[in-house]
Amino acid sequence: MTASSSYPFLKGHGTENDFVLLPDHDGTVHGDLGAERVRALCDRRAGIGGDGVLRVIRTAAIETGAGQDAEWFMDYRNADGSFSEMCGNGIRVFGRHLALEGLVDASGPVLIATRDGVKTLTFADGAADGEITVDMGTPRVLEETKVSVGDHTWPAVNVDMGNPHAVAFVDDLADAGRLLDPPLHDEATYPDGVNVEFVVRRGPGHVAMRVHERGSGETRSCGTGACAVMVAAALADDAARDTDYLVDLPGGTLRIRWTDDDRVLMSGPAVLVASGSTSL
Ligand SMILES: N[C@@H](CCC[C@H](N)C(=O)O)C(=O)O
C-alpha cells in the first residue's frame, strides 16, 4: 500500500467498546498492519477513533498458528497497537459484519479463529441481526493477586479468559478514580500486562463493573472482562452452574453464563455504525 492510497473501513461497537474494522480478506491490503497505523486509526481526534482494530482476514492468509477450522480470523489490536489473544466485544462485532455481508451463514454456528483459538458464535433466531452468543471457552482461575490505584489496594482474582484479568471487588465503582493510568499490579504475575476490572454487587446474579484495559485504557465495556467478573462473582457466590449473570458496564449490559461443562457463554449486542474509506 502506498501512503496516498485509501482503503475501506467500518466502524462498530459492542456495548460501546468500539472498533475500526479493516476488510483485508486475502491479506493483500495491509501488510503486517503496524502499530503506528493502528494508533492513527484509533486516535479519537486525528483518526477514526476506537478502542481497537479488527482486521478481517481469512485464516489461510495469516501466519498465526490458528487452526484452519474457521475460514475467518479476527486479527485484533489494542488502540496502542499491541496484540491481544482475544476480544469478547470485538468478536461479536466481527461476526455481525461477516453475517451482514453474507460471508458466513448466521443460521448455524459460526466459527471464528482468534489468537486464543477458534470461538463459536450463535445468532439468535439464526438471523444476521440477531443477538450474538459467543462460547468464550473454559476460564482458568489462578492465584489471588492484588491491584492498586492511588492509596487504595484491593485483593483481586486472577482469571485467564485467554487474555489476562485481575478482578477486584470494591465498595463503590468511584473508588477506582479516573483510571487515567494502568492500575498497579504484580508484574511477575502479569509479565505482559493485565486488564483490571472493578466490581460491585447489584443483586443476586447481577453485578456492575468498570475496566481499565491493557493497551486501550479505561473503556466503556470489555467482553472478556465481563466473563472474568462473572466467574469471580459466581465463585464467591458459590452459584450453581448454568445460572445467568447480568454484568452492567458503562456502555451497556452483557449476559454471561458459566455452564455445567465449564464453558463461559457471553451474549450481547453488536452494532455497525459507519463505513467509508480512509488513507490513514
Ligand atoms: N475489549 C476487549 C478486550 C480487548 C483486549 C484487551 N485489552 C487485552 O489486551 O487483553 C473485550 O471485549 O474482551
UniProtKB/TrEMBL annotation:
Pfam families membership: DAP_epimerase
Any one biological process term the GO annotation gives: lysine biosynthetic process via diaminopimelate
Binding-site list for substrate: N17, N78, G88, N89, N163, N195, E213, R214, G223, T224
Subunit structure and binding partners: Homodimer.
Catalytic activity annotation: (2S,6S)-2,6-diaminopimelate = meso-2,6-diaminopimelate
E.C. code: 5.1.1.7
Organism: Nocardioides silvaticus
Function comment: Catalyzes the stereoinversion of LL-2,6-diaminopimelate (L,L-DAP) to meso-diaminopimelate (meso-DAP), a precursor of L-lysine and an essential component of the bacterial peptidoglycan.
Family: Belongs to the diaminopimelate epimerase family.
Presence of keyword Hydrolase: no
Protein name per its UniProtKB record: Diaminopimelate epimerase
GO cellular component: cytosol
UniProt cross-references to PROSITE patterns, sorted A to Z: DAP_EPIMERASE
Compartment(s) where it occurs, according to its Swiss-Prot or TrEMBL record: Cytoplasm
Entry keyword set: Amino-acid biosynthesis, Cytoplasm, Isomerase, Lysine biosynthesis
Molecular function, one GO term: diaminopimelate epimerase activity
Gene: dapF
Active-site feature positions: C87, C222
Site (Could be important to modulate the pK values of the two catalytic cysteine residues): H165, E213
Top-rank taxon, per record: Bacteria
Pathway the protein contributes to: Amino-acid biosynthesis; L-lysine biosynthesis via DAP pathway; DL-2,6-diaminopimelate from LL-2,6-diaminopimelate: step 1/1
